[in-house]
Amino acid sequence: TSSWIIISQPSILELLGPRLKARSLDSYEIIVSEGESAKDLDEYRSVISKMIEIGCDRSSTILALGGGVVGDLAGFVAATYMRGIDFIQIPTTLLGMVDSAIGGKTGINLPEGKNMVGAFHQPKAVLIDPTILESLPREEAISGLAEVIKYGAIQDRDFLTWVSSELDDIKTFDFESAITRCCAIKADVVSQDEREGGLRRILNFGHTIGHAIEAHMGYGDVRHGEAVAYGMNCAAWISEQLGILPAADRRILSDTIAKLSLAAPPPLDQDAIL
After folding, report:
1. Which domains are assigned to the chain?
2. Does 2 score more than 80 pLDDT?
3. How many helices (H) and strands (E) does the chain have?
4. How much is the pLDDT for 54?
5. Active-site residue set
């Protein structure tokens, strides 16, 4: 059997397939569904079945080629197949590069909630090529930028100020510098608290309400970054009302998020969100 198993989506393979073939990599490809729907139990079972059919063993290595959805699913497969095999993250979206590919969180969704089944399983490597972002739709970049803003908000005021300035003209946004700083922040946090016993929870800023919005609206009907942006604004407003966050700091965050020009969220059922 081949020791390399590429897990990806049709749109990603269409874009990056020629690069892989040029490397003459002896590998098998397992194609999963587009969008958030790939992160469910049925898709997970399908991938596991294909790996058994191929004859994968503990020496096999999974290459997670795609965005956060592919990385989360492929990572969970790697964490659980034959009690755990190696995998490498190759994120192809900004969100994946700055957040989901780093830190070892893997998982799939259930109707009851996002990432309800998962494992901590660190990749052997994270390979990032910022030039891939040049082919991304603008909406994907915007979604990832919400996570970039998050890092400034939780850990680095100067970085948040820089991001806000860069967003004045997104066409010239310095993605490579942003990715480098975000990776450094996340790696530092995870190195101190890998299993999310305390400090790592700051990485969930905006995600409590954001995940609730995703679950309520339907996974894939709202981009993850958009939901996180809404969640950060809500969390900041609540913090201001409780006297935890100064009004001036809340405005800095909301003004920066406003530069993403996100559409206003549709009317939401507050009871369902809670």
Report:
1. 4-130 (3.40.50.1970), 137-273 (1.20.1090.10)
2. no
3. 11, 7
4. 94
5. 83, 105, 147, 186, 196, 200, 204, 207, 211, 224
User: Percent of the chain, pLDDT > 70?
Assistant: 94
What is the reported pLDDT for 70? 98
265 pLDDT above the threshold of 70 = no
Asked whether residue 21 carries a pLDDT value surpassing 80, the answer given is no
Q: In one letter, which amino acid is 55?
A: G
Smallest CA-to-CA distance from 92 within 125, 53, 66, 57 is with 66
Query: How does 172-210 read in b/e, with b if 16+ C-beta sit within 10 Å?
Result: ebebeebbebbbebbeebbeeeeeeeeebeebbbbbebb
The pLDDT confidence band at residue 219, using thresholds 50, 70 and 90, is: low
Closest CA to 1 of 44, 73, 61: 61
Nearby residues of 253 by Cβ (< 8 Å), 6 or more positions away? 149, 153, 160, 232, 233, 236
Cα 82 from Cα 46, distance rounded (Å): 15
Cα-based distances in Å from 87 to 30, 76, 106, 137, 191: 14, 10, 11, 27, 19
- Identify the pLDDT of residue 159: 98
- Which helix H or strand E contains 61, and what residues bound it? strand 61-66
Strand 4-8 and strand 27-31: the pairing is parallel
- In degrees, to the nearest 5, what angle opens at C-alpha 95 toward C-alphas 62 and 173? 130
200 in helix, strand or coil?
Answer: helix
CB burial class (10 A; 0-12, 13-18, 19+) of residue 257?
Answer: buried
User: Residues 73-113: pLDDT tens digits?
Assistant: 999 999 999 999 999 999 999 999 999 999 999 999 998 88
Radius of gyration for the alpha carbons in the chain, expressed in angstroms and rounded: 19
Answer whether residue 1 shows pLDDT above 60.
no
- C-beta neighbour count of 55 within 10 angstroms: 10
